Amino acid sequence: IPAIRVFGSVLFAFNGFMILWGEHYWFGNASLSVILILIPVELLLRKRSMPHFIFLVAMVVLNTFVSIYLACMTFIFGALYTVFRSLYISKSIKELFSVLLPIVAAVLIGLAISGFALVPAASLLLFDSTRITGTGKSAIGQIANAAITFFPVDQSILSLSRIFSSNCFVTGLEVPPFSNYYEIVQVGTSVGTLVLALQLVFAIIVNKKTSRKNKVLIIVATILILSYFVTAFFPTLFNLGATASNRSSYCIIPVLIASMCLGLERVILPRKTSIITLLLSLVISLVILFFSYVHATEKAHLVCILLCLALLVFSGLLLAYQRSGNKG
């Protein structure tokens, strides 16, 4: 088994959402639900075959049966992911439709099979459940309003710190400055997330072999992921147009981990590290951690300090590894 896969698996197994919501008897399943959708989607994108088609149908049915609430968030994210991936690998409109068609068909068949559970459960969720509560506006109006609703700067930066850890500004049962401990963004893919992920983004953008279309897609995708932490759009969209909810933050985790693994495999290990990008991501990460430290409770101060030290050591090792190759 390649070491990169082990690295990615460990990051996923101990991500912030899994650790925190895994304490809940139900929501911990969300981390698994998104993976069970993305795997067959990726397989169908790479090779159209009946086993892959049936696999996706089965996973749509399974997700619908397990939880309509989680399935809605997972399917919305899955649709966005599929569109971006299809656009990235397609070289023409005709190829794009040929790539999307089997995936759309599999999802529709899966929803049709699970329809007897989907329709009544969705009706209960949308109209009678307290799980989703809105403001009285239509879902479309709520989503449109959320698109131009930005979170306060301090809340956005503190939310970004949750990419590193769930304990950057509060620990345990301490009361956070906004929302509650469980409802804040849960990612926790390590303090090296930005360092590794941005190396991949930069490498793709500056690569002369990357088409202009794909460069634009990468930039747009990066901005959209960032927007989850600074605007109410995606938290509202994933919550079916009701109030903004960060429970859907589990959807971001596989994308970040995949970016980290690819950044490590295709950029760091071949010694193609961009020093400027490394320094930029280091500064951004340190600013986020410093801001968290300033707003953190006393118990969380040590967490911020340890994360800063770990980040500096990690970045130093990457720099030393890069320079050792240049000397050779």
Distance between the termini: 29 Å
Number of helices: 15
Instruction: Tell me roughly what share of residues is in helical segments.
Output: over 70%
Could you describe the largest sheet, including whether it forms a barrel? none
The beta-strand count equals: 0
Based on secondary structure, the structural category is mainly alpha
Give me the secondary-structure topology.
Blueprint: H1 3-13, H2 16-21, H3 29-46, H4 50-66, H5 68-89, H6 93-113, H7 115-127, H8 139-147, H9 153-161, H10 193-206, H11 212-230, H12 233-237, H13 252-268, H14 275-295, H15 298-327
Helix pairs in contact: 1-13, 3-4, 3-5, 4-5, 4-6, 5-6, 5-11, 9-14, 10-13, 10-14, 14-15
Description:
This protein has 328 residues and is mainly α. The protein has helices at 3-13, 16-21, 29-46, 50-66, 68-89, 93-113, 115-127, 139-147, 153-161, 193-206, 212-230, 233-237, 252-268, 275-295, 298-327. Helix 3 (29-46) runs antiparallel to helix 4 and helix 5 runs antiparallel to helix 11. The longest helix is centred in the last third of the chain and has 30 residues, at 298-327.
What keyword list fits this structure?
15 helices; 328 residues; mainly alpha; 71% helix; single chain
In short:
By secondary structure, this protein is mainly α. It is 71% helix and 0% strand.
